[in-house]
Amino acid sequence: MIILGEKYTFTKLELEKLRKKFGQVNFLSHENSDAKTLRSALENLIKSGDQRLIVLNTEKPVDGKLVRFLTLLQFKTKYKKIKFLNVESFLEIYLQKCYIPENGENLNFLNDIKPYNALEYALKRVIDYVSCSMLFVMLFVLKFYVKKKIDEQSPGSLYFLQNRVGLGNREFECIKFRSMVVDAEKDGAKFASKNDERVFEFGEFMRKTRIDEVPQCINVLRGQMHLIGPRPERRYWINFFEKEIPYYNERHIVRPGITGWAQVNYTYGANALDAKQKLMYDLYYIKHWSFWLEIKTIFKTFEIILSKKGI
After folding, report:
1. Global pTM?
2. Strands across the sheet with 2-4, in order?
3. Same domain, yes or no, for 239 and 181?
4. Is residue 157 part of a domain?
5. Tens of pLDDT, residues 147-178
6. Do both 85 and 141 map to the same domain?
7. Is 111 within the bounds of a domain?
């Protein structure tokens, strides 16, 4: 495949996925290049290997002559298998995430980011009640063992209660098993990480197996969360991300989830760039919600739990 331009910067993991799917991933710069030069470079790449896709990842509009060249490829017998897409469509089709425009360059994309309709919401709530009723039973069984392990390693409260931001940018009290030492944030809020020194040994096990999230079934049964949705964040981080990431608050048009499309596709966030990547997955989930995407997210969550990778 050929990626023309530098509008979106692909992550290392994404490039690995693309190489597995397409073989070669070739980059061509669009900045400061005229249409004739780009056409010549494209022709050379097309002739040199098995190219199946051209991605228009350009900041500026593509020259009309270059567009004509690309559209005519489908009529040439030896090149007819080559397709071309803009980067927005490519990200959604092949990486299941939404491109986020910078600085209001394209507000039209918001038209497709809408809350669930009545039927979708009803179906989600059925999934919520069935799954979280089972989790509630699991919570009753687990809490005695979890309490014992926490008392051994980090004496203190069993539950960790913290205000998080949910639907409509409103706060609610989120419930989790405590996985960090008492007063973990005495020096201020910090990003969680895979090897967070504030997490005690059994707390790390709970995080990798998602056991610490089980009490959130209470939030779901209360109607504050879904089983699946964007991760609920603290107001502190919301205020920070709003300044750094365009359209960050769009994730609050739906209820947050215990697990989510972003959590199963991206690792722990350590900065605003990670938060933006996760938002791209959250917006894809909202835009393309379906029963099968819900089931796919559940299965991917189980895969991560069984592999103890954490989310």
Report:
1. 0.90
2. 26-28, 2-4, 53-56, 83-86
3. yes
4. yes
5. 999 999 999 999 999 999 999 999 999 999 99
6. no
7. no
* 9 contacts: CB under 8 Å, gap ≥ 6: none
Tell me if 2 sits within 8 A of 54, measured CB to CB: yes
pLDDT band at 111 (very low <50, low <70, confident <90, very high): confident
Same-domain check for residues 88 and 140? no
Residues 171 and 289 in one domain: yes
Instruction: Name the one residue in this structure whose structure tokens are 């030896």.
Output: 78
Residues 82 and 151 in one domain: no
pLDDT digits (tens, 9 = 90+) for 115-131: 999 999 999 999 999 99
Q: Are residues 144 and 272 in the same domain?
A: yes
The reply to whether 124 falls in a domain is yes
Smallest Cα–Cα separation from 54: which of 14, 20, 77, 26?
26
Number of domains in the chain: 2
251-267 mean pLDDT: 95
- DSSP assignment of 267-307 equals ----SHHHHHHHHHHHHHHHHT--HHHHHHHHHHHHHHHHH
- Are 71 and 145 found together in one domain? no
